C-alpha cells in the first residue's frame, strides 16, 4: 500500500530528530566519526564464453558479485563483522531460472565475537560462515578460481555456506595447533530445508603443523547435520562428512616471493532418504611464480552415485546442470599488481560422465577491493 | 589443628615463591623488539617473537601456530604505525587473550616512544592507494635509528614495571644500561659513515628514511616509488639517469627486497649495491640490535669502497 507523501515527509523529519540531538551533544563538526567501523567493498566482474552452451547466462559480461563489509569493536566484550553480498539471481534464490533476473542482496555474514570469555573460549553469535572444509566458508572474492569446485557447489552451494546461530571454539592443548569448533544454526544454508523448524549443527576439528618456518600442513575434518533440503517439509535428515588436507609454503626469502598452496578436500553426504552413494572431491594447486603472478590448476568431481541416467533428486537446480557424475578440469593465471586488485584468465572443462555432455568455458575476471578490508585468515 | 596450620603455611610459601619466580611472558612482533625486551627484562622475562628477522614484516603469514605464543602472553610489544596491520589483528582475535587486547596493560605500541615530530613521512593532504600501500600514520621503520631503540627500551621498562612492580627498578636500570651502551656505539657508527666519500643513496623501499636521517645521508630516490607496487620501467630509467648525473651513489636494499631490480639500478649507475639487514637476525651476522647496526655500517663502508 503506497504511503501518503505527507506521512512520508513526517516520518523522514521524525527519523532525523534523534540524530540531531546526538549532533548537538557531540563535537563541533557533528557526531564523532572516530568510532566508525572499517568499511570495504569488494567487486568481481566477469566475462565468459561457453563453447557448448549458448545461453546468455554463460556468455557475456556481468557483475559477478559485490560485498560490502563493516568491521568494528562493539564494546569491551564484543567485536562485530557484517558482510552484505550482492550477486546475480540464481534459481536457488527462490526464482525459476527463466525469471532469475537482476541482483540478489543478502547478508552473507553478520555476527559478534566474544572478546573476553574465560579460558580462551571463542563464542560467535549471528550469521556466520560454517567451518565446513576449506572452500565452503570462503567469500567469492577469496575463491582461488572463478567458480567453486563442482563438489562444493553441488552439495554445499556455490556461494559462502553461512547460517544463523551460535558457535563455540576451543583450542586443544596439544603440541601442534588444534582447535575444535561446534555450532548450532537455524538451517538456512543450501543443504538444509529452510522451512523445517529443526535446528542444524556441526563441527570441525582443525590440526595444523609447522613443518618448517615457511611451510605448514593442515589436516582437518568437518561434519554437519540438519533437515534435508531435498525433501522440504518431510523432516528428512542429511549428514555431511568432510576431510581436507592443505600444504602451504610461502618463501620467506623475498617480499611476495614464491609460494605454493595445495589443497585436497573430499565430501561425503549421507541422506536419510535417497538413492545412491553421493560424494565429491577436488584438488587445487596455486603457485606464485613472480611477485605479481599466480598460476593455478585444479580437478574435481561431484558424483550423485546413482545408476546411469537416474537423476539425482535436488541436483536439478544447480549452476552447472549436474545430473549424475560431473568432472571438472581448470587452469588459470592471475595478475595481482597490488593486494587490492587482480585480473584472472581461466579455462574450465566440464564433463558429465552420465549424459556425456561437456562444455569448455573461457573466463576473465577482475577483482578489486576499496576501503579498509580486514586481512584474510591463513 | 597444628597440622592444618602447617599445611596452610606450606601452601602459601609455595604459592608466593611461585609468584616470585614467575617470569613475565613477553611476545614481540619483531626480532628487534624481542632483542630489546630481552635486554630490559633479562631473567625477569621470557621473550618470544613472531616475525623472524629474515622475513619482511609487512607480509608475515598469520599462521594459527603463532596464536599459541600470543595466547600465553602477559605483554605484547609491537612496532605500531600499522606496520603489522596485515596480520597482527587476525592473530590477536584468534588468540583470544584478554590481557593483550588493545587498551589493556599487556598491549604496548612501541611507536608511542617517539616524540612529537619524530615520526617521518606522515602523509599530508589527500591519501589514497594510487600512492601505493602507504602507511597513513607515517613511516613505521623507526627502529633503524638506534636512538629510537633507546626510547623504546625506556618505554618497555616502564610498562614491565607496571606489570611486575617488584622488579620495576631492575627494568629501569637495565634500560639505562642499554641506553648507555647504544649511545657509546652511536658515536662510532656516526663517525664511520660520516667519513664515507659517498653520501648519496638510492633505496629500494621506503624503509631506510630513519637510518639516512640519523646518519646524514641524502636519498636521491626510491626504486619502489609506490610502496608495495612493482616499479614502472620508466621510473627506474629516470632514477638511473638521475644517479648518473648526481653520482657517485650507493644503492641500498633489504635482504627480502627484489634485489635483482636494485642490482640493475646499481649496475647502470656504475655504483655498488649494499644489501643491508633491516632487522635483527635478517643476516647471520646481525645477531642482535647493536650487531645489526655494526653490519649496516660495515656494508656501507664496503659499498663505498672504504671497508676492509
How does the SSE layout of this entry go?
The complex is a heterodimer of chains A (378) and B (308).
Chain A: H1 5-24, E1 38-50, E2 60-75, E3 78-88, E4 103-114, E5 122-129, H2 150-155, E6 162-171, E7 177-185, E8 200-210, E9 215-227, E10 237-250, E11 259-271, E12 279-290, E13 293-303, E14 325-338, E15 341-352, E16 358-371
Antiparallel strand pairs in A: 1-2, 1-16, 2-3, 3-4, 4-5, 5-6, 6-7, 7-8, 8-9, 9-10, 10-11, 11-12, 12-13, 13-14, 14-15, 15-16
Chain B: H1 2-21, E1 24-30, H2 31-41, E2 45-51, H3 64-71, E3 75-78, H4 88-95, E4 107-109, H5 146-163, H6 168-194, E5 200-203, H7 209-215, E6 218-222, H8 233-246, E7 250-254, H9 259-269, E8 272-276, H10 289-303
Parallel strand pairs in B: 1-2, 1-3, 3-4, 5-6, 5-7, 7-8
Helix pairs in contact in B: 2-5, 2-6, 3-4, 5-6, 6-10, 8-9
Q: Helices and strands of chain B, in N-to-C order?
A: HEHEHEHEHHEHEHEHEH
Q: Spans of chain A of 5+ residues with little confidence (pLDDT < 50)?
A: 12-25, 93-99, 309-322
Tally of strands of chain A: 16
End-to-end C-alpha gap of chain A: 50 Å
Secondary-structure arrangement, i.e. CATH architecture of the largest domain in chain B: 3-Layer(aba) Sandwich
Q: How do the strands of the widest beta sheet of chain B line up side by side?
A: 2-1-3-4
CATH topology-level name of the largest domain in chain B: Rossmann fold
- Number-wise, the strands of chain B total 8
Largest beta-sheet details of chain B:
4 strands, parallel
> C-alpha Rg of chain A, in Å?
23 Å
Integer average pLDDT of chain B: 91
Helix content of chain B: 40-55%
Q: Strand sequence of the main sheet of chain A, in spatial order?
A: 1-2-3-4-5-6-7-8-9-10-11-12-13-14-15-16
Q: How many helices of chain B does DSSP assign?
A: 10
End-to-end separation of chain B: 77 Å
For this structure, the CATH topology of the domain at 120-371 in chain A is Porin
Compressed to H and E, one letter per element, the order of chain A equals HEEEEEHEEEEEEEEEEE
